[in-house]
């Protein structure tokens, strides 16, 4: 778990730097921060989405996951949790707008830091063979992105360190039995769906299209499952070509 703690620490430190810069930026420069973070998020999202081994798996994962997420109203729940955290930290002194920004920062940063293959593979390597190199590299990258995101969204980005501890810590502790189940194909499909979610965040930052990204979180569970069963489906129904 040492690497996971280090990753969370880098996000906290990066967030402090971003908050320091945010309060010293003129309003006219804040557009630069949003545009830069949006474009960088799009680049990361595209690179991750292209890791898919089957566009049909990617399509079905996002569609089915979206249906489930909207039915369960996942984003509303995450936003409510983020707003609750903001109220607790500000002792009820924050405005509705600040609570919304806090919740968005928590949600989007959590997706950014935990949706990639580096998270899963690095955590599994750290937990099974004690190889921390990949997670350490990811930690530095996350710290840099935390600077940009916290300058755009605020303190909610720092709260995503809690999600890193839970999500990445789970893969670190359970990596021994998860790795054979997921396999390389499952990890790649999980990462590709994560890339699609980052594209949604990027388009939102650029004010191109606002999407309730949190409602698509179940797609990250559906994708490895479809990757696992796709060989059997292909044998039974070659026409689908999954």
Extended strand count: 0
Instruction: Kindly provide the radius of gyration, computed on alpha-carbon positions and rounded to a whole number of angstroms.
Output: 18 Å
Strand content: under 5%
- Contiguous runs where pLDDT drops below 50 for at least 5 residues: none
Task: Please give the count of helices.
Answer: 9
Number of structurally distinct domains? 1
Element order: H for helix, E for strand? HHHHHHHHH
Provide the structure class: mainly alpha
Helix content: over 70%
Q: What's the rounded overall pLDDT mean?
A: 81
Q: How would you describe what is shown here?
A:
It is built from nine helices and no strands. The protein is mainly α. The protein has one domain (2-22, 31-233). The N and C termini lie far apart (36 Å).
Features:
globular; single chain; mainly alpha; transmembrane; membrane; DUF554 domain-containing protein; transmembrane helix; 242 residues
Structure described in brief:
The protein is mostly helical and 242 residues long. It contains 9 helices and no strands.
Task: List the SSEs and their pairings.
Blueprint (H helix, E strand, L loop, with lengths): L1 H21 L4 H23 L5 H18 L1 H17 L5 H19 L2 H12 L4 H21 L2 H50 L13 H18 L6
Helix pairs in contact: 1-7, 1-8, 2-7, 2-8, 3-8, 3-9, 4-5, 5-7, 5-8, 6-7, 6-8, 8-9
């Amino acid at each position: 778990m040492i690497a996971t703690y280090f990753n969370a620490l880098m996000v906290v430190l990066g967030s402090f730097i971003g908050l320091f810069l945010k309060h010293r930026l003129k309003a006219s420069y804040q557009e630069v921060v949003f545009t830069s973070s949006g474009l960088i998020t799009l680049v990361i999202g595209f690179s991750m989405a292209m890791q898919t081994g089957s566009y049909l798996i990617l399509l079905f994962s996002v569609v089915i996951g979206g249906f489930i997420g909207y039915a369960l109203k996942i984003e509303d729940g995450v936003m409510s949790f983020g707003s609750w955290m903001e109220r607790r930290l500000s002792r009820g002194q924050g405005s509705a707008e600040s609570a919304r920004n806090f919740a968005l920062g928590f949600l989007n940063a959590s997706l950014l830091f935990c949706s990639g293959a580096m998270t899963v593979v690095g955590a599994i390597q750290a937990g099974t063979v004690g190889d921390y190199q990949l997670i350490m590299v990811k930690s530095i990258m996350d710290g840099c992105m935390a600077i940009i995101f916290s300058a755009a969204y605020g303190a909610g980005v720092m709260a995503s360190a809690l999600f890193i501890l839970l999500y990445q810590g789970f893969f670190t502790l359970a990596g021994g039995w998860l790795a054979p189940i997921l396999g390389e194909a499952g990890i790649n499909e999980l990462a590709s769906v994560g890339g699609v979610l980052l594209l949604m965040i990027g388009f939102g930052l650029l004010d191109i299209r606002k999407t309730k990204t949190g409602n698509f979180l179940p797609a990250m569970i559906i994708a490895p499952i479809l990757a696992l069963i796709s060989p059997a489906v292909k044998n039974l129904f070659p026409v689908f070509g999954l």
